Amino acid sequence: MLVRKFQRKISILMPMFFAIGTFFASHAYAQISGATLSGTVTDASGAVVPQAAVSIKNVATGIERGNTSNAAGFYSVPNLLPGPTGTE
Known about the structure:
The protein has one helix and four strands. By secondary structure, the chain is of the alpha+beta class. The protein has a two-stranded antiparallel sheet with strand order 1-4. Strands 2-3 form a two-stranded antiparallel sheet. The longest helix has 24 residues, at 2-25. It is elongated, with a radius of gyration of 26 Å. 2% of the residues are buried.
């Protein structure tokens, strides 16, 4: 009799735990394969250069991405795809 009560509790609780686990797993974030390159544009004297055009080129694919630095000379270019690792 005790075994039946335990089996009944398990048969009720298992679907609940499965549903909760599925719900939380669907909200997990996947990894992205891209990188973000950021920095500050400065001139020869070390002063920041606002509104400077920044260009980043993947030499393997020829794809070029660009951005403009802000008033503090900061730029950020997200989601850059990786190039060859040299092992190909």
